[in-house]
Amino acid sequence: MEIIDVHIHFSRIDSFIRTAESISRLDYSREGFIKAFKEANVVKAIGMGLTEQRKGAFPDDTSPNPMLLDLDDLPRGLYLCPGVNPAALKKNRDGELEKIERIIREKTVAGIKIYAGYYPYYVYDSIYEPVYALAEKYGLPLVIHTGVTYSEKGLLKYSHPLTVDEAAVRFPKNIFVVAHLGDPWHLDACALLWKNSNVYADLSGLLNCDKTEVEATIRNPRETAYLAGILAYADVYDRLLFGSDWPLVPVLPYIEYIKEIIPEKYHEAVFYKNALNVFAKLNEYYEKI
Ligand SMILES: [Zn+2]
Prior knowledge:
The longest helix has 14 residues, at 93-106. The protein is α/β, with parallel strands linked by helices. The chain has helices spanning 14-22, 30-39, 86-91, 93-106, 129-138, 163-170, 186-195, 211-219, 221-234, 251-261, 267-278; strands at 3-8, 42-48, 78-81, 83-84, 112-114, 142-145, 176-179, 199-202, 240-241. The strands form two sheets. A six-stranded parallel sheet has the order 4-5-6-7-8-9. Strands 1-2-3 form a three-stranded parallel sheet. It is globular and about 50 Å long. It binds zinc ion. Zinc ion is lined by residues 7, 9, 48, 205, 245.
């Protein structure tokens, strides 16, 4: 089965580099990406644009818009969700928006990433309105960080999945993808999908560990039954998307983990087809990893 991974990172962020060395124990490089993703039969991936201007600054208020993928030259088959820094947007609205639009026109852009919680703005804040208008103009979904932040500097009240409800209602022409299924507010994220037909969720970043630990989790029915049960109850498989959050977890074992919590009859949808429905731009370019 060919797979699309809708949520990875490919940016020079110090905490990601250290995680790859000592927690997920993988090769966080261009070569490491190509090898791991080919081996896992991932044919396309979407990188969440992110930058820090000095080591350890993430989430960085001083990063210019849009935040991109600056680890190395982009491998084939890797698409971009340019990241929005609302602090910079606040200082120079029109100039920053122009830069975001230029990247949308020039690069293989699949969506736009909003870092709720990392930056202290609710997703329905008026600061994001012109960004949502751009997303609508170019047919791009908005990927929203939801759940616990990978930095103690984040604020959880901005990243709770229920905050996306108000954005989904106020901006019905936009499509929202809640990243990480609101981890650990999974049930709240499911309520959001259940109610709002313009909301999807990616299943990335539910584990942050190395291969051995992912395999131990798969063997532990207490861990897998919990999420499998919630997802079966919510029954929104047509709006769930596979994502890994690489380099926070090795991709191949993580695919096996997600296979464990999603019934087999929905694998084709969750690992491939739903992504093409949400990220329509993936249909326009044909290069594979
Ligand atoms: Zn991520």
